[in-house]
Automatic annotation (TrEMBL):
Entry-linked InterPro entries: Acyl_CoA_acyltransferase, GNAT_dom
Gene3D superfamilies, A to Z: 3.40.630.30
Lineage: Bacteria, Bacillati, Bacillota, Bacilli, Bacillales
Protein name from the UniProt record: N-acetyltransferase domain-containing protein
Taxonomic source organism: Viridibacillus arvi
GO MF entry, a single one: acyltransferase activity, transferring groups other than amino-acyl groups
Pfam families the UniProt entry points to: Acetyltransf_9
Residue stretches making up the N-acetyltransferase domain: 1-158
Superkingdom field: Bacteria
Length: 179
């Protein structure tokens, strides 16, 4: 298996179609079927391919500053990690998370952040659930328009400490959209 880092604006039509098929298969009935992102494009992705160069898995990554209780934090957001149905439960998702960990070494990143309904994979890979009241820009994913500002605790929020800062409960302003 080969894992490749791909900058979003460098994805060609063929790869875009492969990513789109994987996302639609993985997020049935949820994912828009005319694009390869949900609310906003990630900055880059890690893609896992088999020896035949068939796309097995993908994860989007978004680097940005957020505000945690009045302090800026540098976050790498994990977006839409998914594995093709026939290759699930083979450690590929954990391999992608490990690749993200390796990428973060000696980078100016303080936390990894994601949302998960099923937390088992992420707990196994060093993430923890946190309780914060989140503030974010609400986007209508179908029309790609701004709906307003959201402000509530989100139970699916998980983080992994990468840098020296400590995570604290309280207010988390995403300074943008949710992943």
């Amino acid at each position: 298996m080969k894992i490749k880092k791909v900058i979003e604006c460098e994805i060609d039509n063929e790869l875009s179609e492969n990513i789109q098929e994987l996302l639609i298969e993985s997020f049935q009935g949820i994912y828009p079927n005319n694009r390869i992102y949900f609310k906003q494009m990630p900055h880059f992705r890690f893609l896992a391919f088999n020896e035949e160069k068939h796309l097995l898995a993908q994860v989007g990554l978004d680097y940005r500053v957020m505000n945690l209780n009045g302090e800026p934090i540098k976050v790498l957001g994990i977006i839409d990690l998914c594995v093709s149905r026939e290759f699930r439960s083979k450690g590929i998702a954990s391999l992608l998370l490990s690749e993200i960990d390796k990428y973060c070494v000696k980078k100016d990143i303080e936390f990894l952040l994601l949302f998960a309904d099923n937390k088992t994979l992420y707990l196994k890979n060093g993430f923890k659930t946190v309780k914060n009241k989140c503030k974010w820009l609400k986007i209508d994913d179908r029309n790609q328009t701004i709906l307003g500002i959201g402000y509530e605790e989100i139970r699916e929020l998980m983080i992994k400490k990468i840098g020296m800062k400590e995570w604290t409960e309280g207010d988390l302003d995403f300074l943008g959209y949710l992943y």
